[in-house]
Amino acid sequence: MPTRPPRWIAVLAAFALLTPPAVAQTEISLGRFFGACEDAGTVMAEATGEPCIIQTIVNAFDAADNGYTVNNLPTDWGNYYDQLKATYAGGNPPDVHVMHKSSLLEFASLGALSPIPAEDLAAAGIDPDDWTPTARAGVTYDGEIYGVPMDLHANLWHVNMDLMEAAGLVNDDGTPMLPGSPEELLVHAQQMKDATGVDYLAADFAEFPIGVRLVLALMWQQGAELVAGDEANVDSAEAVRAVDTIVSLFDGGYADPQLNYADSQQAFLQGEAAILVNGTWVVDFYDAQAADPDVPLQSYYTAAFPTLFDQPATWADSHMWVVPAGLADRDPERYEGALAMLDWIDEASIHWARTGHLSVRESVLASAEYNALPHRDEYAATVEIARDVERNAAFPAIQDALNRSLQSIWLTGVPAEEALASADAEIQALLD
Asked: What's this model's pTM, rounded to 2 decimal places?
């Protein structure tokens, strides 16, 4: 006579019939910079600062019940493109990764990136008609869309209003008094030095290409381009005037050319510089720092880049998210996951905008939530004056060459005309 199985076995068997099988998770690899945030959670509305906001956006996607998990591959900004190119050379690029608009042509022209068909964007829930015309043009190459735009970011003047007030550089309406010419720049700088003893201006002149962005802005304000078509214009009179304007701050003791990115930021937060030239990406972070009673910066204002020459202009670029070529054929499930990740980031535009970046979605730009973000009205004019370089596949190498040249001027004393002439020849060789 057969033996009846124990009751608990029958119960487990019945329970198994009622429990749906676990859904297999498809892993998506994601490459990015923006810095690390060890304490990032999954609630996007609670994150502050660029590193934590982007990590929380990724974490929230990873935690969602969508069938995907994310293998996050964060990299320092300074090494990002070298490491990204190494992954492409090795045949294992991330399934989705961030990129600057200024680098798109370099990768797309080599066939490294996949254009994303309109039907694939629509299937993922992404609406390109909601992107601003500038943003859509920025992700388009040879008539096809190659990515999903994330923001417009630009250089601003971050201002310590307590120091400006001490120097008598505050307008009647409470806004900072900013210079309107190179000559007035030095007058203001001297007022600051006389009244407070601190530097008038700080920026990263010794590490990343912040100096390049300053020179570009000042050239555009004179109606000149760094590169026009296939011709370098690096040793032009406008470029020399732009460089001389910056060097005059060093010569007068109003700015320190030795500061790198971290040191320049620290000088501003510690009240050792009245103005910091940096991007939109730190507005939320500086606002939070100013709210901390232990941080010397207590009264913080964010100003659009002032016009020192004939026409307003400031350096700008955009972040976008792209997919490597061939992913749809190699692994359709990972390709679908990459598009789902792109849609998630696109939908999180309002959270990313809290960093200080300018949104590229028309619906977000028109929302009350976006327009109520801290300091937004103080630098709203940035949208109108934002400029970027002409699209050129060689631009990353051009930027590196000019950055080396500029640092030779203000760090080692090479005459501006000599250094810019050398850079012009190097950049012309790249263009040729």
From this structure: 0.91
